[in-house]
Structures are given as C-alpha cells and as structure tokens.
Amino acid sequence: MTKEKAQARREHLQRMRAEQQRKERRTAFLMWGTGGLVIVLLVGVVGFYLVKQARETSLDAVVSVKYDGGQHVWNKVAYKETPPVGGEHNNYWQQCDIYDKPIHSEHAVHSLEHGAVWITYRPDLPADQIAKLKNVATSTGQQDYMLMSPFEGLPAPIVASTWNHQHKFDSPDDPKLGAFIKRYQNGADTPEPGATCGGPDAIVTTADQAPLPPEPTGQSQTPMDTASPQPSQSQQ
C-alpha cells in the first residue's frame, strides 16, 4: 500500500470515528433532553396538584371569635353568631348524632364546649345534598364528637362550627369541609377536652320534641361534665 492510500485510509477512519462520536453525542443529548423534559413536566404536574390541593383545602375563610367556657344557664340565649360558636349554654349538652330536625342551640353549644363539630344546613337544602352531607358527617373525624342538624336562617347553605370557629359552605362536596372537621374537632380551643358528647345526661330530643329543661329547684341535681379518655385527632 502506498503512502497516499494509507493516508487516505487513516483520514477515512478518522472521519468515520468523528461521525460516530457526533451521533453518540446527539443521541445522548436527545436522551438527557427528553429525560429532563419529563422531569420538568412531572415536577410541574406535582407542583400544580399540591397548589391546587392546598387552595381547595385552605381554611383562610374560617371566622374565629373568642368565648370562654363554663357559662351554664337555664334560660334561652340570644346568640350573636348564626349558628352560635360559643358563649352561654344550657347545663345539658346535646347527644352527638345526626338529627333531621332542629335542636336547641343551647344544648348544641354545650356539645361544642366538649369538642364537637356542629354541621348545620338550611332546611330547604336538596335531599341529595343532605344525603352527601350526612355521608361526610358519618365518614370524617370522630363520630362521637359529630353533631348535625337543620338550622333556620343560615347565612350559607351549610355552616360548620366548633367552639370559637366557623366556616360557611355552598356544597357538601367542598373539600374544605373535611379539612375543617379534621383541624377543629376537639381542637386547641376546646374548653373541656375529653368531656363526653353523650352519656345518660345528654339530650337526645329535638327542639320540637321537648323544650329547654327548667331550672331545678330544691335538691335537684344538675349534670356534671363527665370526662372520658382524651380524644385523639382523626386523620380520616
């Protein structure tokens, strides 16, 4: 082989190697670029979901007030909030349960004092919406600290209340309702944490079935706020 042919062969091999290297770099660039794009898209999707979830469950609209516990009375109370979120209340608390008729606010507020969530709704709320609301009430949080009943004159279709805290809702499908229950049921503002929301002294009747109990006379006994084991926050 002449020098010219050998040189030409070497140059040809160099060109082939250079072309192969360019192809490898191009393939690597495409692979890394595609992988990077996928990662960016995944981060974007996850970020969007987290932001969307945070917005949907934000409790920035919660209205908070300040009431001290232990204000037991026998008379009917004119409450500032609708429905009430604290203040004076009857010596008897309402049995935590799902009621299809209105209950006395004075009993319900006593249940709030014990850590209950009180879900109220307008009596004319459509039946399918009430059914969904009952499903939320019976599947979220602690059932022995859940109170639900219709309430006349609400400022929104649905209002959830705990002691010192309240949130309005337009639909039972609103994820903020579940978030409210989880955060405030037996929350930090509960005046009597661990007190029962049931027991033999609890009121089980609705407002149309029985009036507020009269003030006892003589040696009549008033109910005691019976303590039960400290409830734990539900994460359902």
What does this structure look like?
With 236 residues, the chain is an alpha/beta fold. 36% of the residues lie in helices and 11% in strands. It has a 5-stranded mixed beta sheet. Strands 2-3 form a two-stranded parallel ribbon. A hairpin with a 2-residue loop joins strand 6 and strand 7. It is rod-shaped.
Summarize the structure.
The chain has 236 residues and is α/β, with parallel strands linked by helices.
- Share of β-strand residues: 5-15%
Strands, total number: 7
Largest sheet: 5 strands, mixed
End-to-end Cα distance, whole Å, is 84 Å
**Poorly predicted regions:** 228-236
What count of helical segments does DSSP give?
4
Shape: rod-shaped
Backbone structural class: alpha/beta
**Rg over alpha carbons:** 32 Å
Features:
236 residues, alpha/beta, five-stranded mixed sheet, 7 strands, two-stranded parallel ribbon, 4 helices
Task: Please specify the SSE layout and strand pairing.
Layout: H1 3-56, E1 63-64, E2 72-73, E3 89-90, H2 105-113, E4 117-121, H3 127-139, E5 146-150, E6 158-162, E7 165-169, H4 175-184
Parallel strand pairs: 2-3, 4-5
Antiparallel strand pairs: 1-7, 4-6, 6-7
